Fold:
Amino acid sequence: MLQAIRPVLPGAALCAAIALVASWLAVQQSAVALGAAVVAMCLGIGLAQLLPAGRIEAGCDFVVRVLLPLGIVLLGARVRLEELAELGFWGLGMGLGVICLSGSVFFALARWGGLAPRLAVLLALGNGICGGSAIAAAAPVLGARRDEIAASVAGVVVAGTLGTLALPLLGGWLDLSPREFGLWAGLALQQTPQVVAAGLAHGPEAGAIATSAKLVRIALLAPVIFGLGFALRRDRSGASGSCLRRGMPGFLWGFLLLSAASTLSLLPQINVHFEPASWLGSWQAQLSLREAAAGGSQVCMVLAMAAIGLQTRRETLARVGSGVLGAALVGAVVIATFVGLVVTR
Structure:
């Protein structure tokens, strides 16, 4: 047992150290819109250029293979239908519209702009749904390489960060209402921290609406990835009979199950109470399983992004090319412009 664990320890410990530093940096005002997962990936990429790959490779592989799927499963706890219902069918339609628009833009860039098809799909999902989480969920279905994942996440993050800075300025200049701006931020920006930061910059009401709009897109993650797996399986085999079993990664079934449990209030709040006679003294605590699952998802994603960063070398990023950033910016501008025109008309 110890022999099996020993090769994993150096890489896993380094991922944990990066995650701790990234979590601290992410709460600083200058990096709050990036989120801890993105900061961890950036730190990992920086360290990867300085460290030999041999000793940490096994631990990084373990973290990505085990914790990344677990993080996506636990993300399902954030999705509750009653919270999404506040936006109604219009909000759901807008969420679907943003995803379709993102797919169309990046399909055009792949067809006429020279963007690699697999990168186009990753960027479309990252821009259209929920940034790095969507890219990470789609990567196993597409068979994407680590450098493609890192480049896609980096492109989406840069585009989203610029949007986080620009949207509040434009919202104030256009004198948008809290609902208009909240919908704009929630439907146009990529990462959840970016949505929250931009929404709150326009006021607490706009922040709440932006978060709800973002949840609509997160809720569509599993159906979209399932559809992607279905389409790829059908395209490769010419038949769709086994798609339901094999076209969708197991962790997305977990995402759906946990989302259903959250919607049905099957993730209870646990109260712990110790009487004064206890050797621990008299105290009580509350634990929400839904909040614990959401927090666990964040921890897993931060660790996994640190591992992906540590496996990304300068030469592999160079192989992907700088066109990814330009494509991500084009897609983000088109989506933000379209959504802004619709919500403010």
Notes: DSSP finds 18 helices and two strands in the chain.
